[in-house]
Amino acid sequence: MTKPHVLLLGEIVHAKDEWEALSDIATLSVCDSPTEEDFIKDLAGKYSDIAAVYHTHYSGPAGVIDKDVIGALPPSLKFICHNGAGYDMINVNACAEKGILVSNTPGTVDDATADVNMFLILGALREFNLSMTTLRKGNWNKGVPLAHDPEGKVLGILGMGGIGRAVKRRAEGFGMITQYHNRKPLSDEMAAGAKYVGFDELLATSDVISLNLPLNAHTRHIINKESFAKMKDGVIITNTARGAVIDEQALVDALESGKVRCAGLDVFEAEPEIHPGLIANEKVILLPHVGTRTYETQKKMEIQVIENVRSAITEAKLLTLVPEHVHLV
Amino acid sequence: MTKPHILLLGEIRHAKSEWEALSDVATLSVCDSANREEFIKDLKGKYSDIVAVYRTFPSVAITGRFDAELLKEFPSTFKYICHNGAGYDQIDVAPCTDRGIHISNCPSTVDDATADVNMFLILGALRNFNDAMVNLRKGNWNAGVPLSNDPDGKVLGILGMGGIGRALKKRAEAFGMTVQYYNRKELSPELAAGAKYVSFDELLATSDVLSLNLPLNPNTRHTINKEAFEKMKDGIIIVNTARGAVMDEAALVDALASGKVKNAGLDVFEAEPKIHPGLMSNEKVILLPHMGTLTYETQKKMEVQVLDNIRAALTTAKLNTIVPEQAGLQ
After folding, report:
1. Cα torsion for A130, A133, A138, A141, to the nearest 10°?
2. What is the DSSP letter of B199?
3. Do residues A7 and A65 lie in contact, with contact meaning Cβ atoms separated by under 8 Å?
4. Cα separation, A325 vs A135, whole angstroms
5. What is the pTM of this model?
């Protein structure tokens, strides 16, 4: 009996051995279609029997899995195993309609992303970008105003998944008090002392608001002009989720008015493009989507995807199904 | 009976009403001497009966260091230097002790804010964030920015396990780091809270990240030097929020160039505000201009701590937070 065919869309950098080891249960191909158009053709040709895909958000064909790509996928394809916690570039509803299940990489991303988030919280509260920039210009700390301590401040976490809970653990080491809003309140054990509040209460009573929710049709621009109007004066905003959960123009306006004292961002609505109002602001602390970009975490994520592929092939089930597909199995 | 005369050297920004409130137990003057020479004259004139001084870190620009040469000009009435800052290396302790002058500093009020800076620098150096931030600001997004490393599971070596070192441990553990330390003396198990006590050489040889949290004094100057770097792991991360001069800055630059030190995070520099050009030209290192305690909340707490020391000195003849070198004197 021929082994099932598994296709790699993108690159595996760290877990090459683990990928090659899949050849005990599968035939492995690496997508070499030069363009999206060629790929669609190949899906009817050399990839017409693929059973599972290892997917990365790369710049090659099907980096974005939209309705057109999904329409062209062969009937043998049942599993898309995505490398990344965020999977907004995959149309999961259209996948479900075609009987294709999708996995992502929760858990493995938590620590590295929370580390970035906490760095941004500190950087924004303490306004470190301004002092670092002043130093690098040769002006030491001239003109740099006093800033604020995290201790005793209320951190409002929007989206209390694995990353949000990892941010809470770090923030408590700095003396912050955590409250959160989530689709559903967590068990006492998982909340570990964080107070569940309504969305409006989170906005109105947090000194720092950290965004840790997935991007989907419901959450796009969840932080917008109306949200900012409900926040405390001088609030700090940090975002390591997806840029589009914030209306970036509204954020720039809120920074300008002083409603938002400072912000720390690892993601942007139209990245790699960044609103010029943010670039022109020397206080905000900006990182270029480095959330999980460490050797250790990248390897863990690659292995998690490979394990999902192995489970898909050997047991016809995924280990870390995306939440939208959980009810399908 | 006249109230004791106390002198403010520098500025009080946040605890002005607490300063004014001292007038129930003291006569308050604000030093207006333009420079060290004038200050010395004034110590023989209008300040010739002062009992205590509230001095700030920046006031050294007027008076110069509190060395033997300056201290001998102080009147015989003078008993207390209440210093605003944790580090008091601007004051030579031995000549003070010789003259019966007691010094207080600001331990504990500085711990959280300084440890916050320290943890920010550890993350920034491990994760190569300066490189990434600079790249973004140049318009290059993350092109060419290499992968970095997680703090999770790494060994943090703390050199100097005082209040700041212990506050740092608490933060580092939230990021999954394992903490070991070297200190003049081993801490009680309660204070060490699980951190492993090791020798100085073992700290150097086995730490993935080395954080400097020790005071600057004649014994600790250039503790981290060329020989020390040679004992360290290849690719070590160095972080300093203590005093620049506990590290030989030129040796650090060499160690960065050779790759012995993979990255560094610094809030203090040997000759600040001057910074070694080898650091300024390095886009990986993450550098702050001595921001350690520069927040509204912490600055106020420190000012109040100094004022409380003055009040205690005047009303009980004992300082609240006398410096460690003089602990046996009261």
Report:
1. 20
2. -
3. no
4. 50
5. 0.94
Token output for B145: 């920015």
CA–CA gap between residue B55 and residue B12 (Å, rounded): 10
B129 shares contact with chain A (CB less than 8 Å): yes
Which of B202, B272, B283, B325 is catalytic? The answer is B272
On whether the CB atoms of residues A60 and A35 are closer than 8 A, the answer is no
Q: For chain B, positions 73-112, list CB contacts with chain A under 8 A.
A: 112
Residue owning tokens 């920046």? B58
Cis preceding linkage at B273, omega within 30? yes
CA dist., res. B152 & res. B275, Å (int) = 31
A chain contacts of residue B287, beta-carbon cutoff 8 Å: 132, 135-136
- Chain B positions touching A151 (Cβ under 8 A) are 112, 297
> Which is nearest to A31 in space by CA: A67, A72, A60?
A60
**Residue B236 structure tokens:** 């070590």
∠ Cα A52 A53 A57 (to 5°) = 160
pLDDT tens digit at each of 330 positions of chain B:
689 999 999 999 999 999 999 999 999 999 999 999 999 999 999 999 999 999 999 999 999 999 999 999 999 999 999 999 999 999 999 999 999 999 999 999 999 999 999 999 999 999 999 999 999 999 999 999 999 999 999 999 999 999 999 999 999 999 999 999 999 999 999 999 999 999 999 999 999 999 999 999 999 999 999 999 999 999 999 999 999 999 999 999 999 999 999 999 999 999 999 999 999 999 999 999 999 999 999 999 999 999 999 999 999 999 999 999 999 998
Q: Taking CB atoms and an 8 Å limit, are B135 and A279 in contact across chains?
A: no
In sequence order, which ranges of chain A are alpha helices (DSSP H)?
Answer: 16-21, 36-42, 67-72, 92-97, 110-125, 128-136, 162-173, 188-191, 199-205, 225-230, 248-257, 276-279, 295-315
Rounded Cα distance between A319 and A322, Å, is: 10
Residue B69 touches chain A, beta carbons under 8 Å: no
Q: Confirm or reject contact between A278 and chain B (CB < 8 A).
A: no
CB distance B216 to B242 below 8 Å: yes
Q: Going by C-beta distance under 8 Å and a sequence separation of 6 or more, which residues neighbour residue A185? A: A191, A196
Cα B127 to chain centroid distance, Å, stands at 25
Tell me how close the Cα of B104 comes to any Cα of chain A, in angstroms: 24
Q: Enumerate the residues of chain B whose CB falls inside 8 A of the CB of residue A123.
A: 120
By Cβ distance, the residue of A149, A172, A294 closest to B297 is A149
Contact with chain A for residue B286, Cβ under 8 A:
yes
What is the spatial distance between Cα B170 and Cα A172, in angstroms, rounded to a whole number?
Answer: 10
Nearest to B230 by CA among B255, B209, B212: B255
Residue among B129, B153, B294 whose CB faces A119 most closely = B129
Quickly tell me which residue has 């964030």 as its tokens: B129
Cβ atoms of B26 and B3 within 8 Å: the answer is yes
3-state secondary structure B114-130: HHHHHHHHHHHHHCCHH
Residue numbers in A near B117 (CB within 8 A): 126
Q: Is A115 on the interface with B (CB under 8 A)?
A: yes
Does B327 lie at the interface with A, CB-CB under 8 angstroms? no
- Residue A76, token pair as written in the block: 């043998």
